[in-house]
Amino acid sequence: MISPGLVSVTFRALSPAEIVGLVQRAGLRGIEWGGDVHVPHGDLARAREVHALTQQAGLSVAAYGSYYRAAKSEADGLSFGRVLDTAVELGAPLIRVWAGPVASAAATPDVRAQVAADLRRIAELAAAARVGVSLEFHNGTLTDTADSTVQLLTAVDHPNLRTYWQPPLALDTDQNLHDLRRLLPWLTHVHVYHWRSVTPIERLALETGAERWRYFLDLAETAPGDRYAMLEFVEDDAPANFLRDAATLKSWLRPGAAA
């Protein structure tokens, strides 16, 4: 089943309590808490506080959005051990990470090998703590295309490493469906948004993307296991528009998915 949720970085200016209140009001089920503002890496007291706040509201921690970059963050001073400790205190079943420091087209074989080795290492560390690791499907990393993502997952070859998916704006609906279908065996969560452009940023009401998103969500439903479809960023960063998009998202999911 796909359940509706929110990525907390959608509202970086709001407190965790305000975000929990919005998610409750919207009737969503889970929150991916970000490691940059709401649950900073290594702040275990904040992680415990946000975990309790989420649970008391009858919501689930869907994941920890860590911003850890494989083969880069350790050298920059962010250890995966600190990320993992924070995720455990947060009660996160999954840590979202980024697949390296460069886009796939710019990655040398050595870079790909370094990223794969670090992902294998952190997947093993997280498995010992019973926490999953999932790649963000994102430009500027080795998961910027489905082909590169499959190549990386195959190279790492660890059962505790999987991937998110989100639709690149440059691809049409059929291309996105082709890519999503390739990633289904490894699919965890889906980041949901509807934008016209990134430069300049032009975000639209989710309902205007109904035709493509209904296809995407129907296909994601065929993947093994349960997952969240989580709203990430909304038109004008406005809470009212989030509530509107949350109602839209819930209307697309199967009965029983919403709170």
What does this 3D model show about the protein?
The structure is a single chain. The protein is α/β, with parallel strands linked by helices and 259 residues long. The protein has a single domain, classed as Divalent-metal-dependent TIM barrel enzymes (TIM Barrel, Alpha-Beta Barrel). 41% of the residues lie in helices and 20% in strands. The protein is built from 9 helices and 10 strands. The protein has helices spanning 16-26, 44-56, 73-76, 80-90, 109-128, 146-156, 173-183, 210-220, 239-252, and strands at residues 2-7, 30-34, 60-69, 94-98, 132-135, 161-165, 187-192, 195-197, 202-203, 227-231. The strands form 2 sheets. An 8-stranded parallel barrel has the order 1-2-3-4-5-6-7-10, surrounded by 6 helices. The protein has a two-stranded antiparallel sheet with strand order 8-9. Strand 1, helix 1 and strand 2 (30-34) form a beta-alpha-beta unit. Helix 1 (16-26) packs across helix 9 (239-252) and helix 2 (44-56) packs parallel to helix 4 (80-90). It is globular. The mean pLDDT is 96.
